[in-house]
Amino acid sequence: MIQIPFNKPYLTGNETKYIETAVNSGKISGNGEFTKKCQSFFEEKYGLKKCLLTTSCTDALEMAAILCDIKQGDEVIVPSYTFVSSALAFVRQGAKIVFADSLPYHPNIDVDKVESLITKKTKAIVSVHYAGMACDMDKIMALAEKHNLFVIEDAAQAIDSYYFNKNGEKKPLGSIGDLATFSFHETKNIISGEGGMLVINNEKFIKRAEIIWEKGTNRAEFFRGEVNKYGWVDTGSSFLPSEIIAAFLWAQIENLEDIQAKRKKIWEKYYTLLKPLKEKGYIKFAQFPNFATNNAHMFFIVCNSLQDRTKLIAELKKHGVLAVFHYLSLHSSEYYKNKHDGRVLENSDKFSECLLRLPMYYELKEKEIEYICDIIIKNFL
Fold it and tell me: Three-state DSSP class for 29?
């Protein structure tokens, strides 16, 4: 039987070579040459003000929560349909999470419902760009300015994706909010196994971000010769990754354009083959508004019911294909359901019950995509 996994990490060929280079350099603890090369790449290619590699996107979000000075009793607005880290990072600082519903046609936050959630205690909005599709950032930034809030872009899935603002300018995701976070987990477009990055767009956070990143010390300033000694000056943690992680990531970065082109080709193949099912009403696709680009992070379909999805998952598994549902709504999670304010978030719950992610990775062959789509089509027709 054919066996098609949900994900398969892609190696470009230079990962182990660069790891060996890092090891032989004698500098493997972090913030060495590969770290600097990776950070400079993102700053130069996407116009991001300051980038700091982290051990995970979760760590980057925790740094964002510290930088925004989130404290006990503060409120942070987060979409319910997202990975737990989008909320957890702020919970750890004592925040009350106010969950927002998704759009009817996409898991992204429904910005038109956000202002009613803002109170005097609201400190920040977390905009999660699900599947690499941009949230309506003009509306989010306008709300933030009106109510004096910080905006954190959770761009974990949004590498090399863009937003067209109201002036027609093409802005890379992660370049718009005060802060942004990315993931290089093995399921992402470019990977380092585990790994992430914090982007600092608000200049007032840059100096403190380096200190928090370096365990609360001014070590980075010391190594640049800006101070003659370094010590403990603020809170922080060991957020920076080793050079081994950065070396692996650099091999991926060098192949970003090739990886993106291949993933987009796979995405388009899925779309073409499954479009007849969509037109007959058996499934739904992601709808991309004209302000958002597609970075082909994932290909998902939305079934009409939980029963339809459960049946389809079983049918695919029977034929050796692993397809997975994604998040369970955080507002109804075991940890947070008793803290939620009781609002029904129907769109978030719909995606929890009906969204299905199909296998998506660089080495997925055209014949395998055809095989997967054939199973899906036969399941419904």
Answer: coil
